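Students often ask why we bother encoding 3D structure as a string. The short answer is that it lets us treat folding as translation between two languages. Here is a chain of 128 residues written in the first language.
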Amino acid sequence: MSPATRSVQVIMMIQAAFGLIGGLLSTALLVGATIEPRDTAWTLYLLHGSGIAVALLVGWLASRWRHRRRKVWIAALAAEGFLTLGYLLILIIDSDLSVRTLLNPNLLLPGAALLLLLLPSMRSWFER
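And here it is in the second language, the structure alphabet:
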């Protein structure tokens, strides 16, 4: 396994771990808080659940790395692209786009993984 391939796998495991920890902690806080009206609570539960689902997907993809299938590479590319563009879109909508906000781990980790996934050596490793 090349160093770039191993680096992407480690980045994805870090993303999954922090995503699960953050999602579970914020969901526990959300459940403990009283939210009125109840319709809003289900929307927040759905948002937290989708964040946990994305973290689980990234972790599952990183665990499937050793199989070297092209579908795993395409799915990892799509997931990291979704995470990178999603956070960038949030920064643009919030009008908080600056050099300091671009150095956020929420953007750096998936961005680095996305760039490494686009390397020709990475593509050839998955096309065994």
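Translate back mentally: The CA atoms of residues 26 and 48 lie 8 Å apart. Keep this in mind for the problem set.
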